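If your schedule permits, I should be very grateful for your opinion on a structural question. I have a record of one protein: its chain in single-letter code and its fold written as C-alpha cells. Would you kindly read the sequence against the C-alpha cells and tell me how you understand this chain to fold? Thank you for your consideration; the sequence and its C-alpha cells are set out here.


***
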Amino acid sequence: MASTDQDALPAELSVTGIGKTYAEPVLADVSLALHAGEALALTGENGAGKSTLSKIIGGLVDPTTGSMQLAGEPYAPASRTEAEALGIRMVMQELNLLPTLSVAENLFLNRLPRAGKLGFGWIDRRKLREDAREAMAQVGLEAIDPDTLVGELGIGHQQMVEIARNLIGDCRVLILDEPTAMLTAREVDLLFEQIDRLKARGVALVYISHRLEELARVAERVAVLRDGRLVRVDAMANLTSDQIVTLMVGRELGERIDLGARNIGATLLKVDGMTRAPVVRDVSFEVKAGEIFGVSGLIGAGRTELMRLIYGADQKDAGTVSLAATPGAAPTPVPIGTPSDAVRHGIALITEDRKGEGLLLPQPIAANVSLGNLRSVAKHGIVDARRENALAKRQIDAMRIRTSGPAQPVGELSGGNQQKVVIGRWLARDCKVLLFDEPTRGIDVGAKFDIYGLMGALAREGRALVVVSSDLRELMLICDRIGVMSAGRMTGVFRRDEWTQDALLAAAFAGYRNREALLHPHEAHEGETQS
C-alpha cells in the first residue's frame, strides 16, 4: 500500500483495524488517516464497504472490530446526533429530509430560532428565513423560497438542501456519499466551489463517488476498497482512472462494449403525439425489436415524465402507445391508463427512484423479486416460498447481486445491488418492452458493464429497450439510436453512424433557445444581430 506525504501529518480522524460483520463480513481490517484541509476520495464497487465505513464514522453503525480517534482522542459515537455534535457530518445517498416541512425548517430543525426570552416562545420566522437564505446561498439555492415544502422540490434540489443542512455550524469532517448523482452541471460546479472553501477552512472531507473524473477534481488522495478490504491508498496524481478501475474490480475494463450480434427487426413500440403540458409536448418515436433506443436531454427536459406517460403512471393529455402483437406485425394502439395496463401489455419500467418507487426496503430480496411475478410463484393464490426463493436465486446469480441470500432485506444491500434487484424483477418477467430510467445511477463501473451486458442479452432476445440517462457517454456506448428531449419536446433522433457529442448537446439546448425566441423575440433578434 503506497504512502503519501500526508501520512506524516497529524490526523484529524483516524480509523484502525475497522471491521464489520452482518450475516457475513462486509469490512475487514480497514485503517485510514484523514487530515484537516484535504479531501480523501473513497471508491470501490457497490458492496465494497464504502457506505458501511462511512456510517461507522458517522455514528450510524457500530464497528465489529477496530477503533477510531478524532484529533488524537478516542472517538466512538453512539449515534449520528453524537457524531454531529463533535463536528462529523454526513450527506448520505438516502436523503435525511422531512418532505412535509419547509426548506428553512429542514435546515434548522434542531436549532429553530425562538422569539421569546431564554429560548422559549414562538419560532422567530423572520430570523429563520434569513438564516435559511444565508445557508441556501452557499449551495446556489438563492432562487428558492425558504418556505417551500421540501416535498415540492425536485430530487436534485433536495440533495442541495441536504448538503446545505450539513454545512451549518461547526463542521470538522464532512462525508459526501455520491453527492452529485442527482445534480445538474451548474449545481455540481457550485458544490465543488464549496468543497474548495471547506478545505481552505481546514475541514477534512471524505468524497465517495463512482465518477472518477470528479475524484481527480476534488481529492488529494484516493482510497480503494474491494470486497471489504483496503487495496490501495495513494496520492490521486499517482493513479490514472484506468488504474483505479482495475483496483476496484480486480480486472481491466475497456471503454468499448460488445453487445453481441443482434438482428434488429420490425417496429415493436410506437409512441405518437404523447403530451402532458407543459412537461411533455407532442413526442413521437418508435423502437424496433432488438434495438436499444436512448433518450438524452438536460435535467427537466421531460425524459422521466415521458417514460411515466408511456407506462401509465401519469395521465396524458393526448397521445397513443402502439405495440406489435406478434413479431413483424404492424403496431396497433393499446389502452394504457395505469401501470397495471402497461404490465399486462408487456411493458416494464425500471424507475430512477429505486428506493421510493422501486423497492420495499424492509422486505427480503425474494419478496421484492416476486412482486412482478406473483403468478409464477403462487399456488392456489398463496405464495410458495420454495418457488419464490428459487426465482430469487436465479436472479441473484444472473445479476451478480452481492448478498447472503434471498432472505436478506433489500435495505441492507448497497445502492448498486438494490438497483440490480429492481432490474432482476422485470428480467424474470416476459416483458417485450423495457423502459430504463437512469438504470446505472449510483452504480460502480464494474456493475455498469454487467448491466450493459444484460441489456445486450435482452436486445438479442428481440425485446425493445428504451434507456434514459444523464450520462451522454453511456448512451453513445450502448445505444443504436438516441432521441434528444429539450423543453418537453423531442428535438432530434440520431443514428449511431451520424451522431456526435456536439450534435447531441446542440439538440438538448435547441428547445430552450426556441422557447426563449418565442417569449422574447426582440431580444433574440438583437442577440443574433450582435453576434
Summary: The longest helix spans residues 501-519. The mean pLDDT is 84. The first strand starts at residue 13 and ends at 21. The radius of gyration is 25 Å.
